[in-house]
Amino acid sequence: LLAGVDGTRRALQSVLTYQQVLAAQTATTGAAKDIEPIPRPAIKVLHEVEARKLLAPFGLSGPRDQLADDADAAARAAQALGGPIALKIVSHLLPHRSELGLVRLNLAPADVRQQAEDLLAQLNTHGTERTACQLLVQSMATGGVAELVIGVTNTPGYPPLLMVGFGGIFVELLKDVAQRVCPVDEHEAAAMLRELRLFPMLQGYRGRTVADLQAVIKAVVAVSDFALASQHWLQEAEINPLIVFPEGRGVSAVDALIVRLD
Predict the structure, then answer these.
(1) Which residue has the higher pLDDT, 23 or 233?
(2) Which of 61, 250, 31 shows the shortest CA–CA distance to 145?
(3) Whether pLDDT at 64 is above 50
(4) Which of these, 165, 136, 164, lies nearest to 65 by C-alpha position?
(5) Helices assigned H by DSSP within 66-212
(6) How far apart are CA 225 and CA 219, in angstroms?
(7) Does residue 221 sit in helix, strand or coil?
(8) Where are the alpha helices (H) located in 58-125, listed in sequence order?
(9) H helix or E strand, kind and range, residue 258
(10) Is the model's pTM score more than 0.85?
(11) How far apart are CA 40 and CA 19, in angstroms?
(12) Rounded to an integer, what distance in angstroms lies between the CA atom of residue 103 and that of residue 90?
């Protein structure tokens, strides 16, 4: 799950500087688009539910999920969704939940109530107010053939810097990323994917299932468009992981985080 926007920043900084990317990017990456600006959010850190609401108009969606305020509500949501279930704490105060042990995966609906109680009790360990948190009950994204990360960093006075790579929890370990300055069109998004060392995995390497490359390309362009629409307030954004399904079945933004400039 989400390695954190800090992970995206470190992955970007460890590969190339902004100036190097800009110097290497000799061609225009995408035609200018008439993109309506997104209003500046009131809070600095938008957790995944709020982040996906901003990303959805650009064509990015995630698994079915429901927010719950307590363990009983979480159990009812799990029964309605059906298993397997991912159970997470969502809060503006806790952007790096996996590192804190606040994510539980592959749960049977019958186990969600107890796991929810455990997660809520664990908040005391991190000194986080219970009222600042909710439970997110989410259908697990099964049947994926790859996990990618799409991230963007934004420095006032410069175009946003976009990256895509193999992600999940391994984004910092693999550092298999490609970068471009926004805007990025479908042609350039496809070129970014071809730069990845593990790109053959998406093409069905050694009998693996072929991934939905067109859906990945559209997702990369969507994040570029989002970055341009939010450039006046955006600091960083990340989708990690983006689950990629077999050809023709699309992608799913399982986790997302957006951070606003101060």
Answers:
(1) 233
(2) 250
(3) yes
(4) 136
(5) 71-81, 112-122, 171-174, 186-195, 199-202
(6) 10
(7) helix
(8) 71-81, 112-122
(9) strand 256-260
(10) yes
(11) 27
(12) 10
> Which of 40, 28, 47, 34 has the alpha carbon at shortest distance from 182?
28
∠ CA 215-161-34 to the nearest 5 degrees? 70
* Closest CA relative to residue 2, chosen from 123, 85, 100: 100
Query: In the structure encoding, which two tokens stand for residue 87, read together?
Result: 């159970």
Q: For helices 186-195 and 213-229, what crossing angle results, to 10°?
A: 120
Instruction: Provide, rounded to the nearest whole percent, the portion of the chain with pLDDT above 90.
Output: 73
Structure tokens given for 253: 């933004």
What is the C-alpha to C-alpha distance for residues 67 and 205, in angstroms, rounded to an integer?
Answer: 39
Instruction: Evaluate whether 257 touches 48 at the Cβ level (below 8 Å).
Output: yes
Q: What is the mean pLDDT of the chain?
A: 88
pLDDT in tens, 130-173: 778 999 999 999 999 999 999 999 999 999 999 999 986 666 77
Tell me what pLDDT residue 26 has.
Answer: 53
Q: What is the pLDDT of residue 168?
A: 66
Paired sense of beta strands 177-181 and 234-244, if any: unpaired
The pair of structure tokens assigned to 19 is: 């100036």
Q: Which helix (H) or strand (E) holds 22?
A: helix 18-24
pLDDT tens-digit readout, 165-196: 998 666 677 778 999 999 999 999 999 999 99
The pLDDT of residue 18 is 61
CA distance 184 to 32: 10
Give the separation between CA 117 and CA 108, rounded to whole angstroms. 15
In degrees to the nearest 10, what's the CA dihedral of 73, 79, 80, 86?
80
Residue-level length of the chain: 262
